[in-house]
Amino acid sequence: MSDKRSVLIVTHTGRPGAVRSAQLVIERLSEAGIAVRVLDAEAEDLACADVDVMSTSAAAAEDAEMVIVLGGDGSLLRAAELARPTGTPLLGVNLGHVGFLAEAERADLAATVEKVVGQQYEVEERMTVEVTVRQDGAVTATTWALNEVTVEKASRERMLEVVVEIDGRPLSHWGCDGVVVATPTGSTAYAFSAGGPVVWPEVEAMLVVPISAHALFARPMVVSPRSVVAIEVIPETSRAALWCDGRRTGDLAPGSRVEVRRGETPVRLARLHRTPFTDRLVTKFGLPVTGWRGRPRTQER
């Protein structure tokens, strides 16, 4: 293993602003003596000299100090596919809309790069989930997710019929548009849009959130991280689709069973400052806090 520092840059090259930002990051890192890697699918758009062009695989992040992602949460989820197998930390620079997973904004780009050069960051681990798909008892697919796993109806015209199981026991039969199983990280993504609760990242749990369920009991639930959540597609229903982080997808035939459990391999995120999650919620959602006066003072005696 080389002692020379190296950083992989992942960019949403469909955005001209992201390309310009990536070029600035590459220039500054190179000036600091840090080797820069870019993906082969992005190298032509970035048009930077003195970079190492890597194939788009987990090998691109092997032995890298960090993966810097310039784009939105979708770009960071794409980069997580490369970084998770090697345990390489991800640092997101938000060039999209909400950017909940990002650590920095475009306006902070110069300061962000300086902190990376000075290694002024910490690394935290985020829980993932493992997904197993079975048909007639046989495993037909395995995958994973950082944000959420979703079983959705494949046909717009027909409702999806599923039975949800927790820890080997049936919970309820739902006619619905789908079911989301999310991590705390994913609680502010699809699960939030479907009416699920916001869960602080350090809470160890999984969320089960039905989508437009026609049932008396169809509330979002928070279950133990040691639980196994299973979603069985009723044999008499229409076909369904499996989505993981909105990226990895597959068809589910009637009778399919999707099992979701805590993953053994987390995703690691680089953090530049200790911003409380409450502050992140306020900033990202633009929550009104006018009138807050802080903690009440202790009365003097």
Automatic annotation (TrEMBL):
Transmembrane segments: none annotated. The keyword Glycoprotein does not apply. It comes from the Bacteria. The lineage of its organism: Bacteria, Bacillati, Actinomycetota, Actinomycetes, Streptosporangiales. It comes from Actinomadura alba. NAD(+) binds at residues 73-74, 78, 147-148, 158, 177, 188-193. Its cofactor is a divalent metal cation. It is an enzyme of class 2 (transferase). Involved in the regulation of the intracellular balance of NAD and NADP, and is a key enzyme in the biosynthesis of NADP. Catalyzes specifically the phosphorylation on 2'-hydroxyl of the adenosine moiety of NAD to yield NADP. Pfam families: NAD_kinase (PF01513), NAD_kinase_C (PF20143). Keywords: ATP-binding, Cytoplasm, Kinase, NAD, NADP, Nucleotide-binding, Transferase. The active site is at 73 (proton acceptor). Its EC number is 2.7.1.23. Signal peptide: none annotated. It catalyses: NAD(+) + ATP = ADP + NADP(+) + H(+). Its main location: cytoplasm. The keyword ATP-binding applies. GO terms for molecular function: NAD+ kinase activity. Belongs to the NAD kinase family. It is found in: Cytoplasm. This is NAD kinase. InterPro entries: ATP-NAD_kinase_N, ATP-NAD_kinase_PpnK-typ_C, NAD/diacylglycerol_kinase_sf, NADK.
